[in-house]
# Entry
Amino acid sequence: MAEEENAPEENVPEENEDENTEGAEEEAPKKKKLSLKKMIILGVGGLFALLIVGGGIAYMMGWLDSMLGIEREKTKLEISLAAPVRHPLPLIKADLKTGRCRSPFLRVEVVVQVNEDDIDLLIDNETAIVDGVRTHLRDQERQDLVGKAGTNQLRFDLVNIVNKVIAPARVHGILFKDFLLQ
# Structure
């Protein structure tokens, strides 16, 4: 019996432990569990709402037309694009920017392609276009205009200059009739 008295009691809880566990159970909010019936009803309701919304979107987008046998009238849009009209600008001569005494010289004849409706606007603003081109060329250096890359860059810049002057009309393209760089 003496051994039983000296052996530690494992199964006997202390008073402090009982108070802590009871207090924790009282403090923790009780979680409400949804019954299986409620979960099934919510799941079916959500699925039904998803089908209704998805079906409405599919109908409005026309995805169900072939299934429902609905044929809508197809409209065809025909745009008549006339060939662009070519208009030559006067001969443009400009000295290029350099740090040396003898500056490089550029002589260029430009042909502008525009719509037939916009040709009058181009002719009326021809002086402003030539002035803009000369101003741009005077800011260029010889090495900027040499080669295919330089010519394409100049063509791009000239399209932008002409488009700014004749806005809202647009240029179809720029062609070089004569391009002499000395």
User: Anything to note?
Assistant: The longest strand covers residues 171-181. The chain is about 50% helix and 15% strand. Residues 33-78 form one domain.
